[in-house]
Amino acid sequence: MNFDLNIKGKCILSAEDNEVNQIVLEHTLAEQDLPFVIVSNGEEAIAGWQALDPLMIFMDISMPVMNGIEAIKKIRESEAGTGKHVPIAALTAHALSGDEARMLEAGADYYLTKPINPNLLLAKISEILDSNSTRAIL
Fold first, then answer.
1. In this predicted model, what pLDDT tens digit does every residue of 98-128 receive, in sequence order?
2. pTM of this prediction?
3. pLDDT digits (tens, 9 = 90+) for 42-90
4. Neighbours of 117 (CB within 10 A)
5. With 91 labelled, which of 16, 82, 107, 126 sits at a CA distance of 20 to 30 A?
6. Helix, coil or strand: residue 25
């Protein structure tokens, strides 16, 4: 997969396999002039993370090829000992008791349920980037 390296260190990476959710993410981020890349599975998310050094990642949990929990764990394993930590927000339709704890335990920093609410998504982006203000783009 080829990535636009002109946005390295300046973009939001979103791993989402559902076309409707991709459209919601695309419109929400584009309306705010936020640079972003959308990928369709966990393997592509890892490749995007490696190539782009994104400001943050929205990670769908249920995806083909490699699910979001596996991808989060691989990213966290790769970060171990480097001093780096990309904020990851788990995006999921799983809203049962214990799901949030399971995703946070896997290494996600945040947990958002679907369907995606654009206002909540933008609020979470602002919160995440404000807490990592040395790299903030908003």
1. 677 787 888 999 888 888 888 888 888 888 8
2. 0.87
3. 999 999 999 999 999 999 988 889 899 999 999 999 999 898 999 999 9
4. 14
5. 82
6. helix
Helices (H), the chain: 19-31, 42-52, 68-79, 99-106, 118-131
Write down the pLDDT at residue 92.
Answer: 82
Q: Is residue 135 part of a domain?
A: no
- For residues 114 and 93, the answer to whether their CB atoms sit within 8 Å is yes
98: DSSP letter: T
Give the residue carrying structure tokens 């990851």: 88
Residue 54 preceded by cis peptide, ω within 30? no
> CA–CA separation, 36 vs 94, rounded Å?
24
Domain that holds residue 80: 6-130
Whether the per-residue pLDDT at 8 is higher than 50: the answer is yes
Residue of 45, 56, 29 whose CA lies nearest to 116: 29
The CATH number of whichever domain residue 82 belongs to comes to: 3.40.50.2300
Say how many domains are in the chain: 1
